[in-house]
Amino acid sequence: MISVKEFDIREDEEQLAKLQDIIDLFVAAGYFRARIKSIPHFDRVVGGIVWCITLCNHTVNVDLFCSENATIGQKIALTEKVVEVLPLLKCPYTIEPYQIQGLDCIHIFPVVQWLVREAVRAKEQCGDSVRNHAVYQFAQRFYFSKDKCIEKQTHIFLNNCRSVKAKCLPQRIYKQKGDFKSPDLRTDVRCTLLEYGWRDVCDIAVQENTEWFENDKGDENMKSDQLLVQLSEMQIQPTNQRLSSKILAQIIDASDFDADELKKETGFVQRYQRSTSMAEKELMVLRKEEKLLDDSLENLQQRKEAQLRAMDEIDKRIAEFKQLVENSGVETVERLKHLLIEHDEIHKREMDFKANCRNELRELDEVLQQLKTFDPVEKKLKDDNDSVRNISLEAGQHLTSIRLELADLNRQIAAQQRVLDDIPAQTEISQYQRRIIELYNQMASKHRETKQFYILHNTLVDIKTFMKKEVDMLNNIDEVQDLTSKQSYKDSFVENLQKILKGVDTSLDKVSTKQNELQARRDKLYGEYQYLLEKERLYYKTVDDFKNACYENEQLRRRLEG
């Protein structure tokens, strides 16, 4: 019965999980090419990183161009440029180019997480500015029905306000007596306003507090009453009287009228600024405390991640050991198991033998103590001591031989362990194979390119030779143009042309022969290629038939056993 064994390439589960997290971050940020599974992992990761750096909208003096069909040299140069750009973006995490080339996703993930966060923030800022500009442009040309109603109501309200102000012009109801003289400008302004019925007027100033305002209001009312006594009431005229702006500007002088009020307002503003500065200092202190708390939280998270990575490393080593045992040969595993069982048995026998020796020694000591009390049997006691000593020596020699055997077994186990450790893992083998294939493809492309350059050079050399011959011939014709009338020259010229024609025919025959040889070689290689394709098809068909036969054989064996 032939058992069919399937071997899978061992992969790091933690690296695959981090790679999937990186792809999910790129897709969530908007880089949807990361979902295409046909693209290699390296191109998806590096393409997403370059996309995030471009989206961050920072000015860097580095050209980042990601191509899916790049060679190894171009990929290495691109990773070095990415590592060079990250410090310019003030990235808090560091990474090396070989980590990106080897897809060390555990170290790539923090950098990708920070880049995606910065890219999303930059996208939001750009989106807000574009949205505001679009709303502004829309508002310049279009209106919603609701906005039209609000604008119409606002227009009606403004018209009503203007009409009310036009109808409610100030009317003069008092007139100063002829002998009245105001002591200062402030009193003159107050009297002028009282003539038009403005009894509730007060100083235009910022009151420091409500108590001062209430005390001052009573004084202002008393002053207004005293001024009204000095004003003679007059009939309201049917026509409205208005003061010109020139007269009011002469009456109200801001420099003399608001001096005291500006001092009070300045004091209030200074107190407000002091309170604002104190609040800003407290806010800065709170922000520093918040930053310290954030730093401590980040340190705790880093310690947690380090512990988790250590646990994952231990689990990884355990899984690798299990995988190593599974991938090892059956004979090697069985031999190691047999050696371990023998080691345990020998150790157990050694412990049992030591225990028996201790018991026998204790019994012999007791017998010796008993025999020492009897003098007549001293000779017999000496004989017993000699026998006990001989037995002890034999037991010691046996123990030494067992220990030597145990040391030999330990050396064999260590040698087998070193042999197993020297065998490379499937992941390393697959990585070496992938790198070798990439180098081979690069060398093949360079060889093909160099071959094309050589062919082009040879063609240009031939063209140059023929053109030189043609130029020489034309120069010769031009030089001997005067001799063309002679018959002898004509005959020699015809002979030269015939020789040249023969040389051209010879060259053409050589080229045709070479072309035929190349065509025959091509046909032969094509036939061999078709033969190999047929053998490959037959091989795959035979493998499928063999698998089906093995499967049927397994089913029959199970039926027979059942």
UniProtKB/TrEMBL annotation:
**PANTHER family, alphabetized:** COILED-COIL DOMAIN-CONTAINING PROTEIN 93, FIDIPIDINE
| Annotated family | Belongs to the CCDC93 family.
Q: Where is the CCDC93 N-terminal domain?
A: 14-119
Protein name (record): Coiled-coil domain-containing protein 93
Which parts of the chain are coiled coil? 269-317
Highest rank taxon of the organism: Eukaryota
Q: Give every CCDC93 coiled-coil domain span.
A: 170-557
Which GO terms of type biological process are on file? Answer: Golgi to plasma membrane transport
Q: Which UniProt keywords apply?
A: Coiled coil
What species does this protein belong to?
Loa loa (Eye worm)
Which Pfam families does the record cross-reference, listed alphabetically? CCDC93_CC, CCDC93_N
